Amino acid sequence: MEHALEVRAVSLRFGGVRALTDVSFSVKAGELFSIIGPNGAGKTSIVNCISGRYRPTEGQLFYHGRDITGMKPNARAQLGIGRTFQNLALFHHMSVLDNIMVGRHHLLKNNFLTGSLYWLTGARREELEHREKVEEIIDFLDLQSVRKATAGTLSYGLRKRVELARAMALEPKLILLDEPMAGMNFEEKEDMARYIVDLNEEYGMTVVMIEHDMGVVMDISHRVVVLDFGRKIADGDPADVLADPHVRRAYLGEEDELLVDPDDAPDHPSASEHAA
Ligand SMILES: Nc1ncnc2c1ncn2[C@@H]1O[C@H](COP(=O)(O)OP(=O)(O)OP(=O)(O)O)[C@@H](O)[C@H]1O
């Protein structure tokens, strides 16, 4: 499988704070890949480096073999890298439909200059195509009943779903999800997990997700990377990562968060066998 993303020896400093130190990992095209780690481990920092919000102090990033280290976020979005944010970034006064349409602006070929020639140019056809795509996403994420609602009036779980819809509207090949299930109740999490699996499987999107809910991460991820104090301490398939003694130690004191016992996960050695 081709690498969709390669993070090569990335370090990031904010003054004296070392948010990331020499982090390397790669994500294969079509993978559902998760980034985990205790609070302050550097998860959002690495996602911001991938999306272009932050520029690494050292190291390089490659997207399908192309060096994107110095590229602006917009240029990365045009290449097919989409994202959602930890804190919702919706236009609260706008409808669900319009919020999703905003997600397509990178794909608009016609602008206000050609807008005056609306009926003569391809602008009308283009708008219809965009509408169709938006309707497809609304169906996929079961947002029909709220499509005209003002985004700010929706429940938190629904707003997270609209944010996912807006990120999907860009038709990314790689989607970065920053805590897509944070603040959700059990049912909302189950729904969101299903949508994420479906967009990976049905749309073939490569998914890179930060998520704190270990049960969900271990359930749906193909591979996992673990950060601690800005350094990578493990990566591999979920069962191996759970059984890794470094990972278990990193979560000591947060043991309640490591909800899945490695002995319950299928087809892997126990922590003690692994350590032996
Ligand atoms: N803009 C910034 N300026 C200064 N320090 C920052 C900035 N962003 C992150 N940091 C620091 O970098 C480190 C890693 O933060 P980051 O937000 O990436 O961690 P995280 O794993 O996403 O944490 P959480 O799970 O709490 O969201 C922390 O020490 C944080 O305080």
Automatic annotation (TrEMBL):
Keyword Transport: yes
PROSITE patterns referenced in this protein's UniProt entry, alphabetically: ABC_TRANSPORTER_2 (PS50893)
Entry GO MF terms: ATP binding; ATP hydrolysis activity
ABC transporter domain ranges (all copies): 5-254
CDD domains: ABC_Mj1267_LivG_branched (cd03219)
Biased composition (Basic and acidic residues): 265-276
Pfam families the record matches: ABC_tran, BCA_ABC_TP_C
Highest taxon above the source species: Bacteria
Record keywords: ATP-binding, Nucleotide-binding, Transport
Annotated SUPFAM superfamilies: P-loop containing nucleoside triphosphate hydrolases (SSF52540)
The keyword Nucleotide-binding is assigned to this record: yes
Sequence segments annotated as region (Disordered): 256-276
Listed GO CC annotations: plasma membrane
Function of the protein: Involved in beta-(1-->2)glucan export. Transmembrane domains (TMD) form a pore in the inner membrane and the ATP-binding domain (NBD) is responsible for energy generation.
Protein name (record): Amino acid/amide ABC transporter ATP-binding protein 1 (HAAT family)
Lineage: Bacteria, Pseudomonadati, Pseudomonadota, Alphaproteobacteria, Hyphomicrobiales
